[in-house]
Structures are given as C-alpha cells and as structure tokens.
Amino acid sequence: MAAGRAFLGAPCSSLAAGARRLAFASPLPRTLTPALSCGVRGRCIASASSSPDAASSPEPYVLTTPLYYVNAPPHMGSAYTTIAADAIARFQASLHPRLQRLQFLTRLQEKNVIFITGTDEHGEKIAASAEASGRNPKEHCDAISSSYKMLWADLDIEYDKFIRTTDRKHEAVVNEFYSRVLDSGDIYRADYEGLYCVSCEEYKDEKELLENNCCPVHLKPCVERKEDNYFFALSKYQHKLEELLTRNPDFVRPSYRLNEVQGWIKSGLRDFSISRASVEWGIPVPNDTKQTIYVWFDALLGYISALLDDGEQASLQQAVDHGWPASLHLIGKDILRFHAVYWPAMLMSAGLSVPDTVFGHGFLTKDGMKMGKSLGNTLEPKDLVERFGADAVRYFFLREVEFGNDGDYSEERFINIVNAHLANTIGNLLNRTLGLLKKNCKSKLAFDSIAAADGSLFRDNIENLVDNAKHQYENLLLSSACETVLEIGNLGNLYVDEQAHGPVSSKGDLVLILETMRIIAIALSPITPSLSLRIYTQLGFTEDQFRVLRWEDTKWGGLKAGQVMSEPKPVFARIETETEEDAQASSKAAKGGKKKARSKGLVEA
Fold first, then answer.
1. Which domain holds residue 512?
2. Is the residue at 447 inside a domain?
3. 171, 283 Cβ separation under 8 angstroms
4. Residue 599 confidence (pLDDT)
5. Residue 600: is its pLDDT beyond 50?
6. Is residue 498 classed as helix, strand or coil in its secondary structure?
7. pLDDT at 196
8. Which three-class secondary structure state does DSSP give residue 284?
C-alpha cells in the first residue's frame, strides 16, 4: 500500500438484490461502537474486558507509515515518509512501556508512543515480481521486507511495531474484520467486466486511459478482465463521510488535501471490489476460498493488527484494546483516496473509530525531474546513507522539504545545506567553544548556566525560539522546526562574534554558549539523533542520560558549575568533493572525470 498504487475505482452498476442492514444496526461490543455514528474521532481503548489499570492508562499516540509494497526494494520516497514519522515519534512520546528501545532513542513528550511501519505483501504484482526473480512469493517477500528493516536501521529509524501482511496474526484480524463488515450488510457479490491494470492492481475507467487503453500511471496497456467479485458498499457512506469532514476538518491534512477529498466525495462514491478471483497470492475470502481479499482491503488492516503483541491471542478486539484509533497516518499523496475515503468507510462499517488525522505529503524529484529507472536518475537511500551518514540524509529532507509539499533533491544543494548548517553553524560552534573552555578553564565549568545568564537577554531569546520549535513540531512543521533550531545556533555564533573584541574567553560567556549547545542537542534530536548524542556526550553527559531526555529538558539551566566537558572533537565532518583521482582511487565506479562527494566520516564523541 505504499506510494505507487493508484485508485482502484471498480464501479458497480447496481447493488445486490435484497435489503441490507444499516451499518451500526447489529449489536456490537462496547469498544467497537464509535463515539459518533459519523465516525468523528473518539477513542476505543478500554473494553468491558479491559482491566481498570488499562482504562486509566495514558492515551497512546499511535502513528503509522504506509505498509510498503514489496514488489521492489525501498526507495527514497518510502524512506522520506519513514524519516518524518520517526522524527514525529521521537518528539511526541516517552519510552514505550512495553518495549525495550534501541540505542540512540530519546522520546521527548510524556506520552506513550506506538510507531507502526511494515510491508504489504499480497497481490498479483507481488507474485509476478517473485516469479521474475526466480523465487516463490514468500521467499520474495522475506527478502524485500528484510531490506526495509535494514534500511530503517541505517537511517536510525526506531519503530515500535513492524507488521507484515503475511503474518498469521494479521490474517486473523482481516478475517474477523471482513466478517464484521459482512454482518453489517455492506458486502455483496456482483459481476464486473472492465479494463484492468496489473501494475496498479485496479480496474480503470476508459475515460482516464491513454491511447491504446494505456494506464496513465504505468504507460502499459490495460487488459480486458471479467470477474465475479465481492463488493464493498462504499456509496452507502457518502453522507457519513461528508459529516466526518465537516465536523473534523483536521481529519485530512494539509488543508489543500482536504479539499481534494471533499471533491472526490461530492462527485459521488461508487462501490468497489474487495476480492479477486484470479489472484492466488492473498488471504482467502472467509466465505469463499476460491477468491482472495483485495490487497487494499487487506493491507489497511495492518494498522490495527500491528497493535497486537507477539504471542498473544490474535483478535480484532485485542488489537483495538492496545490503542486504536491511530493518532496519525502519514502517507504519500497518491494513496490519499484509500486512506481518507475507503478506510474510514470500512471502519464505520465494522463499528470502529476512524483515525484522528491522515496527513498526505508530496513527492520527491531529483534536479527538478520526476525520478524513474528509465530516466536513470533514481535516488537510492542506502547509497546516500553510505556516502553522507544518516544524520545528513534525515536533516536535508526534513529541513529542505516543507512537509506536505513536493520537494526536490540536488546533490549540490544537499552538500551546501548540510555543510553550512550541521558542520559550520552547529559543529564549529561547539568545537571552538569547547576549545576555549579547555584553554581557559581546563574543560571545567566555572558557573551554573542559570547564574551565567543572569540579567542577559540572550537566555530570553533562546527560550522564545525553543517555544517556537515546540509549536512547530506539534503542528508537523518539521522544516520550520529545523530552521528554528538552526536560528538558536545562529544566535550562539552571533554572540561569540560580538564578543570578538571583548572578553571572548569570559568563563560566563562560555557557559552561555555551551548551555545553548545542550539545548540544541535536545531540540534537534528528533531530526538528527546520532549527532545530538555526540553533542550531548561532549558536554559531559552519558548516553544513558541522553536516552531519557524529555522536551522539558530544553528549559534553561541544565549545566552545573564544576561539570567537566569532553575533549573538543568535530561532531560532524564536512562533506568534501573528491577529485577524479581521489574518486578513482576509492572506487572503480568513478569515471569520466566526474566529481563525487563523500563525507570523510564522523568523529565519534
């Protein structure tokens, strides 16, 4: 269900004969009844069977990436979504109480967080990709799913749950959900004949096709296909979806994506096929094992099945009890219709609350052009990490792409931004200040940072910027948050420059700047966790202290008199451009006199 699949839109000429029950007419367990029948957000965590402690526990912040489609290895688009989700998770929540966190994790708010990602592994296209690679579908899925996990580790992604739609617990949840929707009277059987795009895994309307019935997305001819399928009565939820968007305009963000969704709904909703008779690689339809469940109806439920702990009973109710509904779905704009139209209608049919927010971000281009293998301009995230490091990759895309809009990658721009911001503004400020502290104070602080700032407007300015950064993180303004933290660094550098003709080595001034660096380390940690750790440990703290930081620790006053700083070492190395000779010596791939940029490596604290 990752970016790349388009709208399936299989129309239906008529509903099945016979009256159907209204969506919420049948009795449901209390936790499976939405707070409002229109699906306006409400929590369904505590159940009749839940313990009192569970009912009174803090409401979790559940955020998700798409479940990425495993027809091919991960690309920069999927990496971008996941980097953004990881930054939001690091800001939003403290350590999850049920899971042991990995290294370099710091969660900055007093909330429980459940960060979900995973892979979507069923469908005709997966079976075809497996056959092309000489593997069976399961082997193919295992290999591609593993490549996602490895890339997330390389990018310092710290997820809580990784769901695969081939997991047994997921299949159990899908079967139960399907049966619930069937009991609501929202699934019926009908014939459908039309033009089918195998790459999109959807039927197409002829009016949207190009010459020779080519798919406008994949530029390949669609094939005639006739099937006897099961359909979901999406049209029945027209008014409920309209009511949802009216009562909760934040259900779809940014606001211009909401306008798109409102337009789709107002144009009229059509029922869509939720099974395939010709696809073997999928979950069998519970009441008809000759058909498999359509991949989107299957994969969307991964957001719920992921909530189950390993080894516990796999049931829809149990999964819901662990934190549904989701607080935030992060997706690419090309799969917005599935998440903002189909998914809430499916949930309403099953008696479940809808997510709080669906956020659709834009696409990435390279040097102003759409990326594609045919153009030879793909951007491989693994290559970027190997060359420049995870912090540089995370910072550039979150700083340079206004979250929600399309963004462009240029290597020249990448190098200039990363060098100027991380190596110069932040890295050099720390390095030269620690150098002066070593020279004048033997690396020991002479004052508390509160005492050093007494009567200084500098502290007020820093605290105002910290407040701005918090507001920006809370509102998913990740680029703005990066800019604000960088402005804190700029203020530090300006302060040092202004003292150039005065007491530049004043012991109090040094404490002011080092306290500023401590605040930067915390405020930037959702974006650049490893860099922030290196900064923090150079300030005399331990890795364990870093791991338990909260956003409230950005409050001025963390440095104490007598605290000993580490030896000054560069925390972020500038990215240098290799000459042709250097490149040829380091890699046989350097040809044609081209220059190749590469970080000379980070010096660990």
1. 411-564
2. yes
3. yes
4. 58
5. no
6. helix
7. 82
8. strand
- What is the value of pTM for the model shown? 0.85
Contact status, residue 2 vs residue 117, Cβ threshold 8 Å: no
Residue 10 in any domain: the answer is: no
Strands 272-273 and 223-232: antiparallel
pLDDT tens-place string over residues 44-95? 333 333 344 444 456 789 999 999 999 989 999 999 999 999 999 999 953 3
Domain count, the chain: 1
Output the 3-class SS for 353-418. CCCCEEEEECCEEECCEECCHHHCCCCCHHHHHHHHCHHHHHHHHHHHCCECECEEECHHHHHHHH
Dihedrals phi, psi of 537, to nearest 5 degrees = -70, -30
Those residues whose C-beta lies under 8 Å from the C-beta of residue 532, and which sit 6 or more positions away, are 106, 521, 522, 524, 525, 546
Does residue 261 sit within a domain?
no
Answer whether 533's CB lies under 8 Å from 506's CB.
no
pLDDT at 594 over 70: no
Is a pLDDT exceeding 90 seen at residue 122? yes
Q: Give yes or no for a contact between 354 and 41, defined as CB atoms under 8 angstroms apart.
A: yes
At 32, which amino acid appears?
Answer: L
d(CA 513, CA 426) in angstroms, rounded, equals 11
Measured CA to CA, the distance from residue 89 to residue 136 in angstroms comes to 35
Res. 363: pLDDT tops 80: yes
CA-CA distances (angstroms) from residue 184 to 14, 34, 40, 190?
18, 14, 19, 17
For 564, other C-beta atoms within 10 Å of its C-beta total: 12
E strand segments, 70-186: 113-120, 161-164
The mean-pLDDT minimum among 203-217, 291-305, 341-355, 404-418 falls in 203-217
Q: Do 116 and 303 contact (CB within 8 A), yes or no?
A: yes
The Cα–Cα gap between 62 and 306 comes to 11
Return d(Cα 120, Cα 162) in angstroms, integer. Answer: 11
Is 535 within a domain?
Answer: yes
Q: Return the residue matching tokens 């190596």.
A: 423
CA-wise closest residue to 407 among 426, 379, 438: 379
Cβ neighbours of residue 554 closer than 8 Å, sequence gap 6 or more: 466, 470, 519, 522, 523
DSSP-assigned letter for residue 99: S
> Which residue do the tokens 């020779």 mark?
212
Given the structure tokens 């550039």, which residue do they identify?
396
For residue 589, give the 3-state DSSP assignment.
coil
| CATH code for the domain in which residue 541 is found | 1.10.730.10
CA distance 166 to 138: 8
Helix (H) or strand (E) holding 191: strand 187-197
The answer to whether the bond into 73 is cis (omega within 30° of 0) is no
Distance, in Å, from the CA atom of 194 to the CA atom of 329, rounded to the nearest integer, reads: 32
Q: Which of the residue ranges 103-117, 216-230, 392-406 has the most confident prediction, judged by mean pLDDT?
A: 392-406
Burial environment of residue 600 by CB neighbours within 10 A (0 to 12, 13 to 18, 19 or more):
exposed
Strand 596-599 vs strand 187-197: parallel, antiparallel, or unpaired? unpaired
- The amino acid at residue 192 is Y
Helix or strand (DSSP H, E) at 147: helix 137-154
Do 104 and 529 contact (CB within 8 A), yes or no?
yes
* Whole-number Å distance between alpha carbons of 409 and 482: 17
9: nearest Cα among 376, 264, 306: 264
CA atoms within 13 A on the CB side of 450: 6
